Amino acid sequence: MSTPRTAEVTRNTNETQISVAINLDGTGRQILDTGVPFLDHMLDQIARHGLIDLEIHAKGDLHIDAHHTVEDVGITLGQAFAKAIGDKKGIRRYGHAYVPLDEALSRVVIDFSGRPGLEFHVPFTRSMIGAFDVDLTSEFFHGFVNHALVTLHVDNLRGVNAHHQCETVFKAFGRALRMAIELDPRAAGTIPSTKGSL
Ligand SMILES: [Mn+2]
């Protein structure tokens, strides 16, 4: 591999201050400090199962709630992906994964299409996972797809425990990312699109 697929992005607003550093060809090392422990737990799944090195620091307006922080971490992570993946030469482009966790099962399918799109179908059985509002899960993914410019289909196929439902989504997301961003040796140096660009 010639150029390292890494990126650093800092995003500051009146609501949040966020920095993201990623290495798409990492080993799953992570330093996560978003101030939202459940979000850190989910981001850890992306790093570990995506084999992506991830360092994320966030200071958000948590005295209001976690909404801005979770959404803006999704946005900033999406920006970092767009930057690190570059011209997408030689990548597999599509990725998919099914991941179970006990009774829960989720499927995530991703396309580094250059177009933002999210289909999010996760019938959470509870509205809160501890202190974490489950509505924020789709906010995270909306932020990510709009800035990573990917098409993402997220389906929780079954599940009773909401923590399990959410965790299978993030694990499958990490696995699907890993497949999509992986360099395909048979397609080295080519852009995986008949248009010639993505
Ligand atoms: Mn867990």
From TrEMBL:
Gene3D superfamilies: Imidazole glycerol phosphate dehydratase, domain 1. GO terms for biological process: L-histidine biosynthetic process. GO terms for cellular component: cytoplasm. Transmembrane segments: none annotated. The keyword Amino-acid biosynthesis applies. Keywords: Amino-acid biosynthesis, Cytoplasm, Histidine biosynthesis, Lyase. Pathway: Amino-acid biosynthesis; L-histidine biosynthesis; L-histidine from 5-phospho-alpha-D-ribose 1-diphosphate: step 6/9. It comes from the Bacteria. One of its GO terms (molecular function) is imidazoleglycerol-phosphate dehydratase activity. CDD domains: IGPD. Its EC number is 4.2.1.19. HAMAP family: HisB. This is Imidazoleglycerol-phosphate dehydratase. The lineage of its organism: Bacteria, Pseudomonadati, Pseudomonadota, Betaproteobacteria, Burkholderiales.
